[in-house]
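Posting for a labmate who doesn't have an account.
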Amino acid sequence: MGGIVWNEWARLMCLTSSFVIFVGGIMGTFQPLPAFDAMRLLPGLYTQPVPILPLILIVLGMILAAIEYPVVAVDYFNSPRSFMPKVAFFIPLTVMSLLEAQTVNGSIYLGIGTLAYLMAIRDDFRKQHQQAINGGRMA
């Protein structure tokens, strides 16, 4: 697969995960359900009247959707140099969304999308290396 295919596939996976994380955060606000029973004992995450973790996941799901589907199309978001900051943001979000039971599927989708972005980065590095070997000529 070429770099642009990995990029588009990763983008669609991350858009899907942003929707699942957003909706799971809304569901978790009304019925908080931690993914692990030991997390019920942590103060602040699942206390009543408002659980904190689902609210954070709602905001992060909206930020993820804004990153992957920007209102203003800028060339930077489609270039391979923008993939590294995305991956750096997606990895902690993946771990955080694993902590809420309603957003586990979104976390898995985001992990797959992050791996696809890493494959796009790898393909771009290979293409740059091949061009450097050829002296800048297209092979």
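Reply:
Got it, the structure tokens are right above this. The chain has a mean pLDDT of 84.
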